[in-house]
Write a structure and sequence with these properties.
There is one protein chain. This protein has 567 residues and is of the alpha/beta class. It has 14 helices and 11 strands. The protein folds into 2 domains: 327 residues, ABC transporter type 1, transmembrane domain (ABC transporter transmembrane region fold, Up-down Bundle), CATH 1.20.1560.10; 213 residues, 3-Layer(aba) Sandwich (Rossmann fold). Strands 6-9-10-3-11 form a 5-stranded parallel sheet, with helices on both faces. The protein binds adenosine-5'-triphosphate and magnesium ion (MG). Adenosine-5'-triphosphate (ATP) binds next to helix 8.
């Protein structure tokens, strides 16, 4: 018993972690409202006897009601019913609201935690995040709603059951035995639904990832004439998904209708028997039957909510893993920012580093890799796609952690392991990638988004000129020109040059250029290279390029893949 109690506590604790404080509180309120609902049922049931006697349908001598039910007049009985009905309506209102609140609070908290988890990871997966953020959250919230219904209805039915026992113990014993036997086939149906529910999730994941792959490769599919095949294949999976869902609804319907019918049979039996040995007075039978009906209704609601929970519990459990384990993953990426600012170019010493991505440990991208980058030098990395260039940049900055080896950053005469000073390092970086990060807002807002120091208008204008961004002065509202989320209205090259301005405004001591000139024409690129040549002594530049122009800047060149001969 003790063991059972502690495992119940553990279960509740896990549930608390999973659904969050707000939803858990709503569950508790659900229990309370279940109790109150029971009380209104009770009042109506006994008032029923009073009604019957005042209407002349029952002999007043057989009416047996507790003292708190008034027996004054028909009008009084009506008023009593109206008051109870009003309280019940308010209770229903609150319950409906709480049901919605539980679902939406759960979604909100799980999505915030997902965001924290995603942005706390070294290597977030777009596909998983989107899947969890949308479909999985919605499905799991159905289970949350089911749990809420269960909490309310189970409380009501438990109390109603006890009340029935109190009114007529023998009759109620028969009722319980009957329900016990009748629930055996229900259990089998539940098992079936639970199994089908697990499959729903897998089926959906399959459809989702296939669609994502197809969309990513849409151009290829067009060229190879495979669009129709792909559509067909996804449609087939959708068909299977539909079949599975329909099968769940089929079993669900069977369960629901059987419960209802069993209920009816039970009511008939109780009425016929009038209680074994005429246990109840006729008046009490009226209340008993009303409460029995309410009991069966609540029980069938509990049964329906177990179906819902069984169906969606798998989706919920995926979050359980997130809540208990993955949320603990490094939350310190951007750490405390009170560290002192790096004011000189940074150097690196990479010693004996081995690195591989999770899941492909057998094929390390770097194996016993060494590299020396003196401060204020420019390292230009070039080599084929997928050879590990961007990975190396991430390793140098401490964002990706190698499985073996040391990465030392040199600041003047001081040396630090990069992961100890990652926050400081990142603070000192200006970054331009092949994709530009443009948000909805004015050009000024875009340029200053992520700039960690005070800037003057003059500085912005100077940086714009340095980065060959004279096009900004051509807009009628200049720096106040509005940009949309994806930078519509700008060419890829213009967006990239704005990214360079943003990087320069941070006054970086480390400038990271990952294919930063990929979208520029040769002349613009050359002019930029000249600008960089003029300012490069003041910073360490780490550049990745497929194109020759940036090679002019290089103090050190690194050619990938690493096992080929260096230049
Ligand atoms: N998050 C990841 N998980 C697993 N493998 C990854 C991940 N990111 C990159 N890789 C793999 O590591 C290899 C190196 O990737 P990286 O992005 O460093 O290449 P790259 O040289 O920068 O290529 P590109 O020139 O195309 O940008 C690739 O084979 C890539 O598939
Ligand atoms: Mg890359």
């Amino acid at each position: 018993m003790d063991h059972r109690f502690s495992s119940l506590l553990l279960y509740l604790k896990k549930l608390y972690l999973l659904v969050g404080k707000k939803v858990f509180t709503i569950y508790i309120l659900g229990l309370v409202s279940g109790c109150l609902y029971f009380l209104t049922d009770l009042a109506i049931a006994f008032n029923f006897q009073v009604f019957l006697s005042f209407l002349g349908l029952a002999d007043p001598s057989i009416v047996k009601v507790p003292d708190w039910v008034p027996q004054k007049s028909l009008n009084f009985a009506v008023a009593f019913l109206l008051v109870i009905g009003f309280l019940r309506a308010i209770l229903q209102w609150i319950q409906t609201f709480m049901q919605g609140a539980a679902v939406e609070s759960f979604k909100h908290q799980i999505r915030s935690r997902l965001l924290k988890w995603t942005f706390g990871l070294d290597v977030p997966s777009t596909q998983d995040t989107i899947l969890f953020f949308n479909e999985r959250t919605n499905s799991a919230s159905i289970a949350v709603s089911g749990l809420h219904t269960m909490a309310m209805k189970a409380t009501t039915s438990l109390l109603l059951g006890l009340e029935l026992f109190w009114l007529a113990p023998k009759t109620s014993l028969y009722v319980v035995v009957f329900i016990g036997i009748a629930s055996l086939p229900m259990r089998m149906i539940d098992k079936k639904i639970s199994k089908l529910g697990g499959g729903i999730k897998t089926e959906w994941d399959h459809i989702n990832s296939r669609l994502l792959v197809s969309l990513k490769n849409y151009l290829l599919l067009r060229i190879y004439g495979l669009v129709k095949n792909e559509e067909q294949s996804i449609n087939d999976s959708l068909g299977k998904y539909l079949a599975r869902i329909l099968s769940v609804f089929n079993f669900n319907g069977l369960k629901f209708s059987t419960t209802q019918y069993m209920g009816l049979v039970l009511v008939c039996l109780v009425s016929l028997l009038k209680g074994p040995n005429n246990e109840m007075a006729s008046g009490v039978i009226a209340s008993y039957l009303f409460l029995l009906l309410r009991f069966l209704q609540s029980l069938s609601d509990v049964a329906a909510s177990t179906t819902t929970i069984n169906m969606y519990w798998g989706q919920m459990q995926d979050f359980a893993e997130l809540c208990y384990k993955k949320f603990e993953v490094n939350q310190d990426t951007n750490g405390q920012r009170q560290l002192s600012r790096i004011s000189n170019p940074v150097g690196w010493r990479v010693q004996n580093v081995s690195f591989s991505y999770p899941g492909v440990e057998g094929q390390p991208l770097f194996h016993n890799f060494d590299l020396n980058i003196p401060a204020a030098n420019t390292l230009v990395i070039h080599g084929p796609s997928g050879s590990g260039k961007s990975t190396l940049l991430n390793i140098l900055l401490g964002i990706l952690k190698p499985q073996r080896g040391k990465i030392i950053a040199t600041l003047g005469n001081n040396e630090f392991e990069v992961n100890q000073i990652m926050a400081e390092l990142l603070e000192a970086v200006g970054y331009v990638g092949a994709e530009s990060f443009i948000i909805e807002g004015t050009i000024r807002e875009n340029l200053l988004y992520g700039v960690n120091r005070k800037t003057t208008e003059d500085e912005i204008i100077r940086a714009l000129q340095m980065a060959e961004c004279d096009f900004v002065f051509g807009f009628p509202d200049g720096l106040n020109h509005m940009l949309s989320e994806h930078g519509t209205g700008l060419s890829a090259g213009q967006a990239q040059r704005l990214s360079l301005v943003r990087a320069l405004l941070r006054e970086p001591k480390i400038l990271v250029l990952d294919e930063a000139t990929a979208n520029l024409d040769y002349e613009t690129e050359l002019r930029l290279v000249k600008t960089l040549e003029a300012i490069k002594t003041n910073m360490t530049i780490l550049a990745v390029t497929h194109r020759p122009a940036l090679l002019r800047l290089a103090d050190i060149q690194l050619r990938f893949p690493l096992n080929s001969n260096p230049l």
